[in-house]
Amino acid sequence: MGSDDVISPIKMRCLRCQEEFSDGTQICPHDGNRLIVALPDPLIGKTFAERYEILEVLGRGGMSVVYKAKQKFIQNFVAIKVLNPNLVFDPSSFERFKQEAVAAIAIRDKNVIQVLDFGISDEKAFLIMEYLEGMDLADWLQKHGEMPVDRTIKIFLQACDGLAAAHSKGVVHRDLKPGNLFMISAADGSDLIKIVDFGIAKIQPSDGAASQNLTQPGEVFGSPLYMSPEQCQGKVADTRSDIYSLGCVLYETLTGVPPLMGINSFETMNKHVGEKPLSVRGMDPDKDIPELLDECVMRALSKNPNDRQQSMTDLKKELIESVRGTRYFVGPAAENYLAQVASEAAAASASATSGTANQNSGAAGPATTASAQGTGAGTESTTNGAEKTNYKDNLSDTTVIPTLAKVSELATQLQDTKSDPELHKLVAEAVDLTQKQEAHNRQLRKMVAALFTVLGVLIVGGSIFATMPGPPSDPAPFYKREGYLWKITEGENDLREGKYKEGMHAYQAAYDMSKDFGDGNDKKTKALYGLMLCMMRGGANPDMLVSTRKDLLSANLKHMEYIYKHDGHDLMNIIDLDAGLLSRVGGHNLDKPFAEQLARSYVENAKREFDQKNYLKAISWLEEALEVEEETHSSIGVSETASKFAGDKDAHEHIEQIEEILKRAREAEREVEHHRA
Fold first, then answer.
1. d(C-alpha 410, C-alpha 430), whole Å
2. Is the CB of residue 126 less than 8 Å from the CB of residue 51?
3. What does DSSP assign to residue 403?
């Protein structure tokens, strides 16, 4: 090896987020998963689809890989997204990939990435897209934290334009997040925003066409931190869902943190459905954020779509007006836009008013004539005698509805007087009015009785519902679940504000309540984890820390066992539920007997799942056992189990992960021997 030779660092890849690392780290900093060795990509350096030279990998995801490529002959750089070969023959995945091309090609706007071509080459489905040089908003926020208000406004006005163009073509993005807002430098050095990744977009019907929506009712797609309440509930998501998601991204850009975030995806989605976030100014009180801008963002985050801005045009207009008169105002271009919007609104209003006036003018003549005739009759009637006028006063008194007795009395008086036909008519009308009023009163009494009956049923039903046990996975009654959530929220607020002693009391109360909830949910784990954080930061008694740490890990083990047996969701949404939990709660301080008991439980679960051909679950359990070995310098037999797994031919698709575990387990054993020596 020459002196100029350089040894390239080994790249490691996270199986969940697909990001690669070459700095020697073993744990993914994004989701806590163990990394595996990343093998070289076989397409690098090859010619793809006969005219593109693959240069490097730009990014990886669960469904596809994006490459930088150079177009032969014209030497133009492009980005190529290639569908995972295993998914080409999956109709749903292929159609979703094709729909991304259809959605993006339909939109021609400077703020939306341009898709140039779609096709299949060597059984690989691909998209050809414009190559963008810059960084996405997620990377910028991770590197710099919150963004200044003036730059944020300029970026999100462009995002509104791009999404308005998409919505005008009937395309709802449904996966807006910082990673899908790409920032490049325009010719004048300013930020130019490109909206990318229409992979789960919904194409709404137009001209009688069927809706191109590959998700079924009840299916949930998107990024939980930025999903609208209707998306989280599996409901239909229209353009206002994009407004909510963009509001989440705007909130994070201004404050540096998402508006709502739980300890896992399920809790985050529940928060989007039922919890109101802190205002932008409340989250970052030291930052000079205009009050109207705060109100604009919080309106976009309304749970009810009808309470949000109703279009991207509305959102853009409100964003501009929210900073008008402040040092963040974006200048003449914004004034021109507001003037254009006002002009269009005025024209639409004038058109509507003109149509209404034309309709009313045709009916005005007859109505006026009838009014004049009525006035004449009234005048003529006043020439009759005083006695007649008294009857009219009695019968036309609008302050009191006459009773049947009153009407009978007046009828008797009429028999003793010389009456004209007008008085007889008035009496007949009074009798009719009285009969209708009494019928109305009877109906009203029935309605009141029915209302009290319904209220009684609701009260009884509510009492039954509040005390009724929940499903097997969460058997506690409703009123206990609400009390638990109250205490958890109280503990979260105390922890965020540094009130660790108060937080310990709140989380302890939540843990006491969670004992009625069973192992099918994460309520015990959540309460104990919060309690552990308060103890660690508040300097609690070491014996209390040891006891709480054991309770937390034991509760989490039971919860994982329950989920792996019963949960019907996608495995990748629940696998490694407690990834990194042991190190976060000081696992190296565990006493050896408890640590070995915990690890043996993990190993036994791994063996059981492996025997049932559930390889991913088995690998996940084995990684948990290995983490205990590494943290506590114990030897529980992970290497022996991993060696058996590696020898099973049926598990060849997972051999890389198994061999990585085996390698680490043997290193852990050598470390144990070293400590003993």
1. 10
2. no
3. P
Written as six digits, the tokens of 6 are: 């350089």
Is the separation of the CB atoms in 211 and 205 below 8 Å?
A: yes
In the chain, the N- to C-terminal Cα span, in Å, equals 37
| 599 in Cβ contact with 587 (< 8 Å) | no
> Angle at which helices 239-255 and 149-168 pack, to 10 degrees?
170
- Inter-axis angle of helices 592-611 and 638-646, to 10 degrees? 10
- DSSP code of 647? T
d(CA 139, CA 155): 15
The SS3 of residue 397 is coil
Side chain identity, residue 154? K
pLDDT tens digits along 431-488: 666 666 777 777 787 888 888 788 877 777 666 655 555 555 555 555 566 778 888 8
- One of 109, 161, 175, 494 is an active-site residue; which one? 175
pTM above 0.70, yes or no: no
pLDDT category of residue 598 using cuts at 50, 70 and 90: confident
CA–CA dist 537, 274 (Å, integer): 29
Three-class SS state of 398: coil
The full 3-state SS of 232-282, as one line of letters, equals HCCCCCCHHHHHHHHHHHHHHHHHCCCCCCCCCHHHHHHHHHHCCCCCHHH
Among 610, 595, 611, 612, smallest CA distance to 658 is for 610
The helix or strand, by DSSP H or E, that contains position 655, with its residue range, turns out to be helix 655-676
Identify the bridge partners of residue 194 per DSSP, sorted by sequence position: 182
**Tokens coding 336:** 């021109």
175 is catalytic: yes
Q: Are 169 and 195 in contact (CB under 8 A)?
A: no
Q: Which residues pair with 83 in a beta bridge?
A: 64
Segment 217-228 shows an average pLDDT of: 66
- As a whole number of angstroms, the distance between CA 121 and CA 119 comes to 7
DSSP 677: -
Instruction: Please give the C-alpha separations between residue 261 and each of 82, 223, 225, 257, in angstroms, as whole numbers.
Output: 32, 12, 6, 9
- Phi, psi angle pair for 419, to nearest 5°: -105, 155
